[in-house]
């Protein structure tokens, strides 16, 4: 048997770096000469592992981590491993230096393991630990004797095989003992200590578990497989990475928390890589068939695999399955709530002429959460029940005029239940009434879920989602997230509905305001015609009165015609074109309208020209004069006066009426629909102010109760307007 083993050991492949015969050192199987590229990759891997170990060791030895438990021991172990990697890369794994340093690396690892037991002072309480550590160290020290014996008796026939068997046995004993200690280190630690011991325990366990498999294969076979020994550089890199993660991150950050997008992309790349590996292996295997059809089979397989990849990889169903699988197996929660909230806000807040309306965006916001391809929004009808309000990418479903009756809508409003229609179809939801799941919905296989939108416990909508490509059953996390999103959407829809109602109310208010203005103007004309009719009974036979009566009737007709023309201009007085206004002519026309009333008098002044709108000014003055007449009663007087006040034309309307209190002037005088007179509309003062403001003027009021009221209208003089037009920079100085 020894002769057979010796022949097999001599048949092992040699490495260009070997300095010793592999027959004398079966622990190192040699590097497989697959090709120069592979040899270069292996060489670079060992150097990379050495560099990473040295960098981490220096950081541990010089930083504050060196003061911690096992800090210096870990740094020493990394430096020894770096030396071994350099020796393998430069001299080969079968060299005397590499074999010697390999024994030193195991001693350094076992010393680091012993120091880790001191993390929570367990080394002081566990008596068996120290003897086991010393025993494993002694076993590894025997490797130096095995190395010395292999060098001393290399010329002796049969000695190399016997030494190799002893060395492999000692390696196996060491790996088994080391793994037992690693298990006790982690399993016997407290929950808090495990957070810190997790990564170094994983590094040591990975190294010794890999070595155990390698040495077991070597013991049962004829030497160490070349490929497994070459991959040991990767194991060292993995150990360095685990130690770096456990050292560089604080205890609160020890958990590996990749983002969902990173995990999804990494998992996708892993699947693509696995697909490529399988394709290469199968294609390479077909090439070894040795038949005349090998090339044809190989080409056909590659074409078939490529066509399959082009068909399957872009599939939305595959991407949906990947997302569900990654979220289910790699993360504690299915959803990345920050990303979902940002996407939800972006969808709802989208604006612009090209953005879909809010109801459609609401459906999309819910559908994006569950990866649903389409959805519907049902909202309450005035007649009761729910009707279709919007649809998102779901044109094929036929929705009746009354999509859900009153009892179904009441069920969702009272229960706030998110319904999985698949459960309904399979009879799992016995408590859901039939009115909540109409036939047009359950008969459509695409209908998947119904999410109520509640605002202050009132149902403002119901979202129906289509089945996602990667179908699954809704769970508690879906229900919680969809319920919160549903309430948020309900507030948006309720706000939009309130805005629509407010806009409609504002339009009705504008309409009512215009009607109030019309009624006020008609009331003034009716008062003039009533006064004319009373005077006609007394003075109808006088020619002068008949002439005044005809003139008054003509003016009233003109007023009615102008009133109809102004109906569409109320509320937009500021848009009128401004021109020059002769205040004397306007004042005379106003006084002429009230010539039959002896209480109205005009004080003639010099010629004054202002800027404004003559028609609007006359209308404002008529309102104020009429208010003065009504406030003064039968004995009251109204006086009209014009003058110049600085750069403005001043119009004064003074009456001897009952007057107004300061509080009424401040809070109610210029408010529409507030009047101090019984039966008044409260429109005259408000409309007069709006008309004057539209001309660029101001209106002030002075009043005392039981004494009377004086309105002061100020308009820019024509001369001042011309100066402002010629030299606008000096306007403030002139004013």
Automatic annotation (TrEMBL):
The keyword Lipid biosynthesis does not apply. It comes from Aurantiacibacter spongiae. Pfam families: HATPase_c (PF02518). One of its GO terms (molecular function) is protein histidine kinase activity. It comes from the Bacteria. NCBIfam families: PEP_his_kin. Keywords: ATP-binding, Kinase, Membrane, Nucleotide-binding, Transferase, Transmembrane, Transmembrane helix, Two-component regulatory system. It catalyses: ATP + protein L-histidine = ADP + protein N-phospho-L-histidine. GO terms for biological process: phosphorelay signal transduction system. The chain crosses the membrane at residues 40-61, 73-91, 97-117, 129-151, 163-187, 199-221, 227-248, 269-290, 296-313. Residues 517-719 form the Histidine kinase domain. PANTHER family: C4-DICARBOXYLATE TRANSPORT SENSOR PROTEIN DCTB, SENSOR HISTIDINE KINASE. This is histidine kinase. InterPro entries: GAF-like_dom_sf, HATPase_C_sf, HATPase_dom, His_kinase_dom, Sig_transdc_His_kin-like_C, XrtA/PrsK. The lineage of its organism: Bacteria, Pseudomonadati, Pseudomonadota, Alphaproteobacteria, Sphingomonadales. Its EC number is 2.7.13.3.
């Amino acid at each position: 048997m020894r002769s057979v083993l010796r022949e097999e050991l001599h048949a092992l492949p040699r490495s260009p770096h070997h300095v010793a015969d592999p027959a004398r050192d079966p622990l190192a199987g040699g590097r497989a000469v697959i090709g120069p590229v592979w040899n270069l990759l292996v060489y670079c891997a060992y150097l990379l592992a050495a560099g990473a170990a040295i960098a981490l060791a220096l950081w541990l030895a010089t930083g504050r981590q060196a003061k911690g438990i096992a800090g210096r021991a870990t740094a020493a172990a990394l430096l020894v491993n770096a030396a071994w990697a350099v020796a393998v890369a430069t001299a080969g794994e079968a060299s005397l230096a590499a074999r010697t340093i390999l024994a030193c690396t195991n001693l350094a690892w076992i010393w680091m393991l012993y120091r880790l037991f001191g993390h929570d002072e367990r080394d002081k309480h566990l008596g068996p630990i120290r003897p086991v550590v010393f025993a494993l160290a002694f076993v590894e020290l025997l490797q130096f004797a095995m190395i010395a014996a292999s060098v001393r008796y290399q010329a002796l026939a049969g000695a190399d095989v016997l030494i190799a068997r002893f060395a492999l046995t000692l390696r196996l004993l060491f790996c088994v003992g080391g793994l037992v200690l690693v298990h006790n280190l982690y399993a016997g630690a407290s929950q808090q200590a495990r957070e810190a011991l997790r990564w170094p325990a994983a590094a040591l366990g990975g190294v010794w578990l890999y070595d155990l498999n390698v040495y077991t294969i070597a013991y049962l076979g004829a030497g160490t497989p070349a490929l497994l020994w070459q991959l040991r550089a990767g194991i060292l890199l993995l150990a360095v990475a685990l130690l770096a993660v456990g050292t560089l991150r604080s205890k609160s950050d020890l958990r590996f928390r990749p983002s969902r997008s990173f995990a999804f992309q990494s998992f996708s790349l892993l699947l693509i890589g696995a697909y490529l590996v399988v394709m290469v292996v199968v294609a390479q295997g077909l090439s070894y068939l040795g038949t005349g059809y090998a090339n044809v089979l190989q080409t056909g397989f590659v074409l078939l695999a490529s066509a399959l990849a082009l068909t399957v990889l872009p599939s939305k169903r595959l991407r949906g399955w990947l997302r569900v699988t990654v979220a289910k197996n790699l993360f504690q929660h299915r959803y990345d709530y920050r990303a979902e909230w940002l996407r939800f806000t972006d969808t709802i807040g989208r604006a612009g002429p090209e953005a879909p309306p809010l109801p459609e965006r609401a459906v999309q916001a819910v559908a994006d959460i569950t990866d649903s391809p389409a959805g519907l929004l049902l909202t309450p009808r005035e007649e009761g029940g729910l009707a279709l309000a919007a649809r998102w990418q779901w044109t094929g479903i036929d929705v009746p005029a009354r999509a859900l009756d009153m009892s179904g809508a009441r069920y969702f409003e009272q229960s706030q239940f998110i319904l999985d229609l698949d459960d309904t179809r399979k009879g799992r939801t016995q408590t859901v009434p039939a009115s909540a799941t109409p036939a047009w919905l359950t008969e459509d296989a695409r209908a998947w879920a119904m999410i109520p939108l509640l605002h202050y416990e009132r149902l403002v909508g119901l979202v129906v989602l289509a089945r996602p490509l990667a179908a699954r059953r809704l769970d508690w996390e879906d229900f919680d997230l969809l319920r919160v999103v549903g309430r948020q959407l309900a507030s948006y829809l309720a706000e939009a509905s309130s805005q629509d109602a407010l806009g409609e109310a504002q339009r009705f208010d504008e309409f009512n305001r215009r009607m109030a203005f019309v009624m006020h103007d008609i009331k003034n004309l009716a008062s003039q015609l009533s006064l004319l009719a009373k005077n006609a009974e007394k003075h109808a036979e006088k020619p002068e009165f008949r002439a005044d009566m005809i003139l008054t009737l003509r003016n009233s007709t003109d007023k009615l015609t102008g009133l109809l023309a102004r109906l569409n201009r109320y509320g937009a007085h500021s848009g009128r074109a401004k021109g020059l206004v002769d205040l004397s002519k306007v004042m005379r026309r106003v006084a002429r309208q009230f010539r039959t009333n002896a209480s109205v008098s005009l004080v003639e002044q010099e010629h004054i020209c202002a800027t404004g709108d003559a028609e609007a000014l006359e209308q404002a003055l008529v309102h104020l004069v009429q208010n003065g007449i009504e406030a003064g009663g039968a004995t009251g007087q109204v006086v009209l006066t014009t003058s110049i006040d600085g750069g403005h034309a001043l119009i004064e309307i003074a009456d001897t009426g009952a007057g107004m209190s300061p509080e009424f002037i401040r809070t109610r005088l210029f408010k529409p629909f507030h009047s101090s007179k019984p039966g008044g509309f409260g429109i005259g003062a408000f409309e007069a102010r709006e008309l004057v403001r539209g001309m660029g003027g101001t209106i002030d009021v002075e009043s005392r109760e039981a004494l009377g009221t004086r309105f002061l209208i100020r308009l820019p003089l024509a001369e001042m307007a011309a100066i402002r037009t010629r030299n606008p920079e000096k306007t403030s100085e002139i004013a």
